[in-house]
Records
---
Amino acid sequence: MGDFYTKYEYAKKMLETELEILIHSFEEKHGYTPVEHVKSRLKSMTSMKKKLEEKGYEFTKENMEKHMNDIIGVRVVVSFLSDVYDIVSLISHSPNIIVKERKDYIANPKETGYTSYHLIVLVPVYLENMVEYVQAEIQVRTVAMDFWASLDHKIRYKFHESIPEEVKREMEEYSKDIQELDKKMYYLNQIMSKYQ
Ligand code: 0O2
């Protein structure tokens, strides 16, 4: 598996740079900073092995390439709900990023209560005499959604997936509270914009 990550490292860098430019030009144009932070990572071999086995695939290089959407994962955390869709639109219009798939878990939250907007994208990596399009997953979410997802992640880790029903129910409720809070913050942002 020695150089398995090389092309993913290049593609991650390329994606980070492209996002930095897109976000910067958005800020210049609108005089407003929608992004709180951007975080990216390459998925570890341990998590890829676990995920492939859960899906019933053998842990091989071919299966990682074929069945893992998120070897490269980028998370863009923004302030307001409307910023999620502005960032998604910005990425979708970039000539250097191809959007392969969209999953709007804000319009359609997952059963757990998880909300976020996911884009599966392809980014070009220039290798000697050829261009290879490498896949990555971009998750765009508000600070409130990020707070919920990070707590949920800790809960999953603590209970190793056998989460007590009571905890699941509470988390589903908090997800609804967060969706309401995001709507209120969006409304507040609309009010504030009248005074600018
Ligand atoms: P990690 O540790 O964050 O990388 P896939 O699971 O990717 O093969 P699927 O089901 O189509 O296929 O993917 P989905 O659900 O669109 O996106 C998967 C990623 O979304 C997860 O990656 C999480 O990052 C996030 N996610 C999805 N559902 C939940 C949830 O209920 N809670 C939290 N906290 N995150 C969620 P990984 O690899 O599962 O995890």
---
Amino acid sequence: MTNALQNRRILLVISGGIAAYKSLDLIRRLREAGAEVRCVLTQGGAQFVTPLSVAALSEDKVYSDLWSLTDEAQMGHIRLSREADLVLVAPASANMIGKMAQGLADDLASTILLATDKPVMIAPAMNVMMWTHAAVQANIKTLQQRGVKILGPASGLMACGEEGEGRMLEVADILAAVAAHFSVAGSLGGKRALVTSGPTFEPLDPVRFIGNRSSGKQGHAIAKALYAQGAETILVTGPTALPDPAGIKTIRVQTAQEMLAACEASLPVDVAVCAAAVADWRPSEMSDEKLKKGAAKAVLELAKNADILATLAKAGNRRPRLVVGFAAETNDMLKNASEKLVRKNCDWLVANDVGSGKVFNQDDNEVTLLRRDGKGQTQSDAWPRQSKDQVARALVEEIVSFFKTA
Ligand code: CTP
């Protein structure tokens, strides 16, 4: 996280939903990042978290009553709505979203949301059927058109036991989106970034494919770190179990050919980071029907896929200013990676040893950053083993310095 949140004043509206328990952590994390957090708790919100917990974590009074004479005398709803840099509604219940869309003002939270002249972000949280209901979707569209930023929701298992879209985004993702909001004019503000992530699946027939073990964790973390530094970020990802990161334009693809097409359609960008584990080969033909095991022996004919990294790094006026590749090696890592750096004409290469289950699907990574210095020499920096999020942030710090000095 950058210091984008330092001294930012955030008015957090907590409306009614089980996800309100996560808002307690959100308050703590926002404050740890340097923000001042003032909280408004709706009647519904107070069914899930107590005013005392909210007050203790925010170290401030909790506001909840529009009609309280003392509150209004100390800090009226108009002042509350103006003395903030951002109004964040988390969780945003279906009811709260409906009131916002309709312009209702029947409690303190909805009155503030109507009176504010500040940017508003909401993190919806509700049951999947409620979220997909046409009424809620129409309200969301109305809010989007008015410039409200919608964070999530995420998919997964819900407190009610059902599964699907509607969970409130994880606190870390809300935090990243809020930080990104404040750092738009920050280090990578005005820059466009493209990231590839995850594996590709190359179909053999309607049920089988050739794939690999990439989880997408590293690529997704890099996209989030670029976004957190204010870059307009496009993530082109193969099939992964990861949710689409908030605020990032995410294009989901299956095959290498689709990934290449999505990347080319995203140009021009200032920086491209190719972290995807792209299949080098695809079955020459895809059978429309499931292949039968009939024969005792089968020979599979493969066709070569285009190299996405090398294609993006090809000299030309659409070449990104900075092209960063990854090298997954199981042996002679530095030698192979240095050759790959030159062969693919990229500027930097993040090399990692993927032998014996050390990287794929793990949460941490040990990498060496190779850079071409323009005089035909390659410099290498070995980084300690650290989480993939830390690797992402460290890489993005290098990208920030590159653009500062470029
Ligand atoms: N890459 C790509 N398109 C491909 C193959 C690889 O964009 N068709 C990119 C990867 O995203 C990564 C880099 O190239 O940034 C290196 O990938 P890696 O699998 O290490 O190298 P390969 O080119 O596949 O070479 P080899 O398998 O021979 O080591």
